[in-house]
Amino acid sequence: MHIDMDCFFVSVGLRKHPDLRGQPVAITHARSGVIAADPSKQAIRDQEFALYEERLPGGSSSRISDIKQKSDGLASMSEIASCSYEARQYGIKNGMFLGQAVKLCPNLKTLPYDFEGYKEVSTILYKTVASYTLDIEAVSCDEMYVDVKDILRDTGLTVEQWGFHIRKEIMDITGCPCSTGFGANRLQARLATKKAKPAGQYYLKPEDVALYMAEIPLGELPGVGRATVTKLTRLGFNTCGELLEGGSVKVLQAELGLKLGERIWEQAQGIDSKSLDFNHERKSVSTEVNYGIRFKTKEECYTFLESMSKEVFTRLSEINMRAKGLTLKLLIRAEGAPVETAKFLGHGVCDSITKSSTSNIIYSKAEIIFKEVKGIYDKLNIPFAELRGIGIQLTKLEKISEMNKALNDFLKRGTTKQVKKASYDSKCDNNIVINKAAGQTQGKKDPNGNIKNINTKTLQSFWKTSSDDCSQWKHNQNEHLRNGIAIDVFNELPPTIRSEIMKEYHIDVRSVTNISAASKTVKPPSTLEKIERPNTPFVEQSWENIKESVKSWIKTENQPSEVDVDILADYLRNLALNRQIEILFTCCKFFYRKFSILNCKWHKVYITLIDAVQQGMLTNYGKMLYIDQATFSCCKNK
DNA sequence: ATCCTCCCCTAC
DNA sequence: TAAGGTAGGGGAGGAT
């Protein structure tokens, strides 16, 4: 399943402006499409346009025609970030300048950005889908791929029923519509979503793929943009059908390169072998400012580089990583480009330069980043007044795990030289110890296949969150990481270091061992061992059996009986008492999935069960398990 | 032969 | 007034 919010920014904006529903609406910074007449702007726009055209021969990008069309000097150059479907009927498109859009539709209404709103809706979107499955690949704040194979199998729903259900749930909770596409691979699902929009769904069935693909314009294939379309058009191909008819892999590869050529050839047939990536790891962190760069002094320039260094380092620290590579990117006013740009404080026509640092530095502090950035900039010998854009990118990232951090801090304090000596080998400095441990973490990543912390990562990639409602959720996910994964690393450490750390941090030896044992023995549901504590009728049963019992219970009983609920609640409480957190998590997800689609009486069963879980959790851990499920609209009182 | 750097292209 | 930024894939050609 591919799922995508419909004109996301507009939909979020309309929540606070319901009066504008059904009208042509656009999200922009500017409020009006008309600006004060300024004859001097005219010459600048003409000059810039000529230069753009010279640099992009034949490439009639919408932006250039925008500048041309608005050469009356009265039109706003504020960009449209997102526009409603009503606005699209007038020919308005995302990325278009407001001035031109207003000419197409004088009645166009504008709304300002609402970044808090995007964050909120995005978080709900991801949490909602994640309450059914964690097999999610995030694409952006409003778009993702989901493997729904298990959901369909477990619930018995058809593709259509499931699509309807999830879209309705998202609409109900967020007030924003989305569309979903289904297919045998990510390409088919994605193209299906295009047809589904707005506020719809479409299942591209295997038997329909060939006919469907033939009509698809090549530019609609993911990965095929402006430049590639130009090349393909020159070859005489406009649609996938035409390409398959008259082209070949060889021709494509000769024109577009080996990889892209092969990919387009396969895509044209509806083939896409790339699997979903549920556990994406960041490869770079960067920060870039290409607006409003007009330095008056060299000091100003250095100060800015310094603050950007701090910013990019903050972002690196937030995802708990460190970097070994750095690239500086500069936009420089092109020769012949006007010093004052057509767009107020825009970067205008520029040359772009990137320069990587080749030294073997670990960027573990903002000052180190700044020093390197300044060094590269000075060497490039570019006048500060010519700068129009600056970017710093950190690459060659490495994960710093929680336990490694603790270990690092601990070793840095230098409590005992012996501890250092006892580490892996005499040549190791602190950093190398950390490295080895990190490698182990990654190698053992997610051994159970049960709990993937995709959602933490997903959200962290898009929103820096610290104080909002999902911070607790993230916190708990991290806690799981410590219990389930980092403990593995801990156990690999030499005994001397282990005992030192435990003393230092007052870690209860027994609890560490228990948690570790639990996390190691838990296997996927199909092969779960028997539950230990002989306390309930379920005690000798595997999770798989219990799951089946619950399914038939739901099917056969019109009403849940109190006795049954009590038995189930006991079982869950004992899972918590036995520190079987991973099974618990699976249980809770399963129950939510089952009970949420039933009536309110069953919702109450769910709530009772979760209460039992939390009782057990509080008894054993003094903390509650963070179970993030949407509340049931029919029983809002809870 | 393979790696690295710079750059282009693309998505959203 | 007006306000992209962030990330990834991959190719060309030099460096190793």
UniProtKB/TrEMBL annotation:
It is found in: Nucleus. Residues 1-225 form the UmuC domain. GO terms for molecular function: DNA binding; metal ion binding; nucleotidyltransferase activity. The keyword Magnesium applies. One of its GO terms (biological process) is DNA repair. Keywords: DNA damage, DNA repair, DNA synthesis, DNA-binding, Magnesium, Metal-binding, Nucleotidyltransferase, Nucleus, Transferase. Pfam families: IMS (PF00817), IMS_C (PF11799), IMS_HHH_1 (PF21999), REV1_C (PF16727). GO terms for cellular component: nucleus. It comes from the Eukaryota. Belongs to the DNA polymerase type-Y family. This is DNA repair protein REV1. It comes from Hypothenemus hampei. The lineage of its organism: Eukaryota, Metazoa, Ecdysozoa, Arthropoda, Hexapoda.
